[in-house]
Structures are given as C-alpha cells and as structure tokens.
C-alpha cells in the first residue's frame, strides 16, 4: 500500500506541474501584451511599464515561469500598478491588478460559498443519483426502474441555465415559496445557510445525478451475478443485506472514482450555477476574470480547480485500492 | 447479416425510432432554414419590433401578451431589438449543429487514431498517453474553454477589428476537439487491448500479417460500434457546452443567431418577459433529450452486453 501511495502522489505532482506549465504558457505567453490587459484601458504608459516589470514580462518566458513556480513554493513580493510592493505569501498564485489583491486571497474569500454549494450538491447527487441507481437495480425492469431512468434522463438533458431560472421564477418570483438564493455563512445561521442554498443544491444535484444513477445501476446489475454474491444469498442472508453489504462493495470502484472527479470539479467552482443564482463563489470569480481579462486570476483559478481535481482523484484512487485488493497489488 | 439484425434491433425500439425522428426533424430544419424562413416570411436579423408600430413598448418589452406571440410572429419577438424569435431559433440550430457535428467528427478521427494506436502499441506510448489523459482530465475544461476563446482572439485579431465569423467557429471547434477526444481514446484503448489478444488477431499475426494490416483490417472494423455510440452522445454534449459558453458570454458573437446567447439575453429580462427564454430553453431541452435517447437506443442496438 505504501508503495502504491508514493507512486500515486508522485503522479499527482507531475500532473499538477504539467497543468501549471500549460496554463501559464497559454495565458501569459499567448496574448500580444498581457501587461496592457492586466493593467486595464485607463493605464498610463508609466504604469504599464511598471506592470510589465512587475509581471516580469521583460524577462524570457522560462525565467517568468520559474519565478511563478518559485512563488508558489516560497512566496514573493509583487509590485502593484502604482509601484506599491505587495507581499504574496506561499503559495503565491500571482497578483490581480484588477482586484488589487493576491489571487489566492481573492479565491480564499470566495471559497466558503463554493464549498457550501459543493457540499449540498454532492448530498443531492448521492441521494438522487446513487440512491435511485440502487433502487432501480433492485427493482430492475419494473415500473420503478423505468420511472427513475426517465426522471434521470430528464436531469441529464435539462440545462442549469434554463432549469435554474424557471425554478426561480416559479418558486421565488411568482409564488414566494422560497427566499431568493443567497449565501449566509454557515457559522452565523445554519438554518438560513441551508434555506438560501437549497435551490442551487437541488438544481446542480439533479442535473449531475443521472450519470451516477446509470453507473450505479449497471455496476450493481453486473456485480449481482458474481459467485460470492450467490454464496452470501445461499447461506441465508436477506436480499437487501446481501446487496448492500457484498454487491455494493464490489460495485463501488468506478463510482468512487467518478465521485472523486466530481468533488474536485465542484470545489473548483460551479461556474454556471453561481452565475444563474447570483452567488459570489470561485466560479463567478473565474467567469468575471475571463470576461474582464484578468489573466493572473484566470491562471490562479485554473490552478486551484486543477489542484482540487488532482487531489480528489488521487484520494478516490486510494479509496478504490482500499476497497479492492486487486488494484493495490497490481 | 450482422448489420441487418442491428438495424432491426433498432427498429424494434420504439423510443429509439421516435427520438431518431425528432433529431431528424431538427437536422432538417437546420438544413432548410433559409427555405422555411422564406415561407414563414421572416429573417433572423431584421429588427421587426423597432421598425413596426405596436410591437414593442418604449422600454423595449413586447406589447402583446406572452412575449409578443401572434399570427405574425409565432414565437414572439426579442425584447429590445425586436427580432423574430422563430427565425432566430431556426438559424440557431445551424450554429449549434455546425459546431457540434464538426467537433464530433474531429473527435472521432483523433480518438480512433490515438486510441487504436495506443491500445495496440502499449509500452512507452501507453504511459505517455495515460499521463496526457490525466492532465487533460484534471483540467477545469469549462473554465479553459471559456478562457481560450478570448486568448486566441487577442492573439490573432487586432483590437479595432471584429473577429471574422469563420474564426469564431474554428476556435470553438478547436477547443472542443482538444478536450473531446480523450474519453473516446480511453474507451478504444481498452477495447483494442482486449481485442489484441483474441485468436483472430493472433492468427493474422501468425500468418505474417503486417502491423498495418492488423490495425486497419483486423482491429478497426471491430471498434466502430463504440465509436458510433460515443459520437451520438458527444453531439448533444457539444451542443450544450456551446450554449453554456454563449450563456457565460464567450460564445458566438452577434449577429450570428445562437441559442445560448438567446438564453443569456432571456435571463436578463426573465422576470419581465419569461417567454423569450422559454422558447430557446425548451427547444434545447427537447433537442438534447431526443439526442440522448437516440444515443441510448444506438448503444442498446449495437451492444449485446448492455444490461437492461
């Protein structure tokens, strides 16, 4: 297991490095003048020159990249447009000349919103997706199975930017059943926190649940035919207990891997959901950075999102190795 | 023989046939958009609401109920500019399908070439492939798609120029393809790895067949089923991603009609004129639903192992 762990972590670090290089190369090297974009249209030529030096654009691209990576490891000091030195502690992901704060600080400010959305959406995915997949597998071919698969297909086909507005119109605007979605910190008022986010949770969860329902169902049906499940049944274990205890464990591998990817992706920001419901999370920050040409923030959010995905995919792999000895011994 | 029985299997699937007809209807509308809009008597670019009297209020909202739905404008008119909704929807299918189908074609070619090659070669190529896949899968692809368009634009288009239409399409197709081939290649790699060990491939190798013969004559004919299934499910995914990009503000620009941009504009005026968003939103839902059902039907017909 230790050997597997070391191998997996080394792989994760290599992937992250490759992503950093690609993102940096594309976004810092591609535009004709990143300083002009970073500085904004009202920038004087002196300020422009300052930004250019501060971003290190007078240096060759390789040393720019080395400095950026060095900043992630050790932190560095970056000069603002007016020349004020700004300390950017480890891990420094650059400085936003639009928001006038280090990129990581901007992301940290908005992370609670994104984490809150992710937690609730994940719960909905588990209940709706995995739950209905289990139910459909146990009731295979009956009305429940067909009803659930139809419901999930609808979820797979509807778009957040349509369903979100329709539900807001029906439940908030016309009938007033729900308050407009908003973010209240969990520590302040847990009840308001849940009430304010229930609509985004349901919409995001419903749209993503279909994949899990389908995968759970097919995995369960496939595993049910294995000899060890029949043995468990033969020695007198009840249907439900057999399937939850033995079939589910055998069927869980691909599900855990997909869930790992999902958790990572959700923590990287729910771009569309946050835009539709007007919640200021990391996703909204990234979308605003793209439309406002705030390149340092764009690269920073890409890296943070990729970091979450890599970490949680690795965690999922470890869980799978723990569930299934064949993986870790291979 | 085999092909006939698969078509039969598909024909017996009632949901599959209906969804095939719905998808066919949309494709037909897209192809015949100029003809249909000529018969209907409207074009997607004219500002009817601003030029005509009694259509738009001074605030730019349709005067008639339900977003201006009338005998003249069947699906109503756009708030603000006053363009015909039905004509815009018709031409919008063209935008979506052009991008989605072209990207799917590129994805199919790249995915098949890479997947089959890596599955057959193994060794170093396989390791490199796995690493590239890990990198691309960890990329926040939607954010990346969002960003690449503007970056390419600032690189190749002078600030005072408008981006030409072909370039907007090319950029979207390029970035969709860049991420889209990964899942297909991963599936094919697995398929080919198991095919490679089968008797018929071994027999060909024993008879002294070249590597080229084995790849093109023995392996490729056996992978078309997963490719077809994957492509049928890729097209709706591309359509919705394209619409999502437009919704977030970085899709195809005016005046090219586009469903995602209609929804985005609809979101701005949603509480005053919900109808304007309902038409493109519902059309997208029906289209994607039909395509997903079609993909399932194709898979059920082609894959005898599907657990039903």
Write up what this structure looks like.
Chain A is mainly α and 330 residues long. Helix content of chain A is 75%, strand content 4%. Chain A has a two-stranded antiparallel sheet with strand order 1-2. Chain A has a two-stranded antiparallel ribbon with strand order 3-4. The radius of gyration of chain A is 24 Å and the shape is globular. With 308 residues, chain B is mostly helical. The longest helix of chain B is centred in the middle third of the chain and has 37 residues. Chain B is elongated. The chains are: A mainly alpha (330), B mainly alpha (308). The interface between A and B is large, with 52 and 46 residues.
Task: Show the helix and strand layout.
The complex is a heterodimer of chains A (330) and B (308).
Chain A: H1 2-29, H2 34-39, H3 45-55, H4 61-74, E1 76-79, E2 85-88, E3 95-96, E4 101-102, H5 103-138, H6 143-157, H7 160-174, H8 190-224, H9 227-234, H10 239-267, H11 271-277, H12 282-291, H13 295-323, H14 325-329
Antiparallel strand pairs in A: 1-2, 3-4
Helix pairs in contact in A: 1-13, 5-6, 5-8, 5-10, 5-13, 6-8, 7-8, 7-11, 8-10, 9-10, 10-13, 11-12, 12-13
Chain B: H1 2-12, H2 14-31, H3 33-40, H4 48-51, H5 65-68, H6 85-121, H7 123-138, H8 141-156, H9 165-196, H10 199-206, H11 211-219, H12 224-247, H13 259-268, H14 275-302
Helix pairs in contact in B: 1-14, 2-6, 2-14, 3-6, 6-9, 6-12, 8-9, 9-12, 10-11, 12-13, 12-14, 13-14
């Amino acid at each position: 297991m230790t050997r597997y762990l070391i191998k997996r972590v080394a792989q994760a670090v290599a992937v992250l490095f490759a992503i950093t290089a690609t993102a940096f190369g594309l976004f810092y090297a591609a535009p004709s003048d990143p300083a002009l974009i970073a500085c904004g249209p009202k920038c004087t030529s002196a300020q422009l020159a300052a930004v250019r030096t501060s971003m290190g654009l007078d240096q060759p691209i390789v040393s720019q990249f080395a400095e950026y990576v060095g900043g992630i490891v050790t932190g560095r000091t970056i000069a603002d447009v007016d020349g004020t030195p700004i300390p950017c502690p480890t891990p420094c992901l650059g400085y936003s000349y639009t928001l006038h704060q280090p990129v990581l600080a901007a992301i940290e400010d908005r992370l609670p919103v994104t984490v809150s959305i992710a937690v609730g959406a994940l719960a909905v995915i588990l209940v709706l997706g995995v739950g209905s997949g289990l139910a459909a597998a146990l009731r295979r071919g009956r009305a429940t199975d067909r009803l659930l698969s139809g419901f999930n297909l609808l979820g797979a086909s509807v778009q957040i930017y349509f369903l979100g507005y329709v539900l807001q119109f029906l439940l908030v605007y016309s009938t007033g059943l729900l308050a407009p979605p908003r973010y209240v910190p969990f520590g302040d008022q847990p009840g308001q926190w849940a009430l304010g986010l229930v609509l985004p949770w349901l919409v995001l969860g419903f749209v993503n649940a279909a994949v899990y329902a389908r995968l759970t169902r097919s995995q369960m049906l496939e595993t049910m035919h294995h000899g060890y499940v029949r043995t468990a049944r033969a020695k007198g274990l009840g249907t439900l207990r057999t399937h939850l205890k033995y079939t589910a464990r055998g069927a869980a591998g691909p599900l855990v891997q997909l869930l790992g990817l999902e958790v990572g992706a959700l923590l990287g920001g729910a771009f569309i959901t946050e835009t539709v419901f007007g919640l200021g999370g990391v996703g909204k920050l990234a979308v605003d950075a793209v439309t406002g040409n705030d390149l340092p923030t764009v690269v920073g959010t890409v890296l943070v999102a990729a970091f979450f995905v890599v970490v949680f995919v690795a965690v999922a792999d470890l869980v799978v190795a723990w569930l299934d000895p064949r993986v870790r011994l291979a | 023989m085999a092909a006939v029985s698969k078509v039969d299997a598909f024909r017996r699937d009632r949901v599959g046939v209906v969804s095939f007809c719905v998808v066919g209807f949309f494709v037909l509308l897209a192809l015949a958009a100029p003809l249909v809009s000529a018969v209907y008597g409207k074009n997607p670019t004219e500002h009817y609401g601003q030029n005509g009297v009694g259509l738009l209020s001074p605030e730019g909202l349709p005067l008639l109920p339900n977003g201006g739905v009338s005998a003249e404008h069947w699906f109503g008119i756009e708030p603000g500019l006053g363009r015909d909704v039905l004509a815009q929807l018709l031409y919008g299918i063209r935008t979506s399908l052009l991008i989605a189908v072209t990207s799917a074609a590129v994805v199919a070619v790249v995915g098949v070439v890479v997947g089959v090659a890596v599955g057959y070669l193994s060794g170093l190529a396989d390791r490199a492939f796995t690493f590239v896949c890990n990198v691309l899968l960890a990329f926040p692809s939607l954010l990346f798609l969002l960003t690449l368009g503007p970056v390419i634009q600032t690189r190749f288009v002078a600030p005072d120029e408008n981006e030409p239409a072909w370039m907007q399409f090319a950029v979207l197709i390029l970035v969709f393809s860049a991420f889209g081939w990964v899942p297909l290649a991963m599936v094919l790699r697995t398929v080919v790895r198991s095919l490679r060990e089968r008797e018929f491939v071994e027999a060909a190798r024993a008879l002294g067949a070249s590597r080229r013969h084995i790849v093109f004559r023995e392996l490729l004919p056996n992978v078309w089923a997963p490719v077809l299934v994957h492509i049928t499910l890729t097209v709706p995914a591309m359509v919705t991603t394209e619409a999502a990009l437009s919704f977030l503000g970085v899709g195809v620009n005016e005046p090219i009609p586009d469903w995602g941009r209609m929804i985005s504009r609809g979101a701005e005026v949603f509480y005053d004129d919900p109808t304007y968003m309902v038409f493109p939103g519902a059309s997208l839902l029906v289209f994607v639903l039909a395509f997903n059902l079609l993909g399932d039907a194709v898979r059920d017909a082609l894959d005898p192992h599907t657990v039903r």
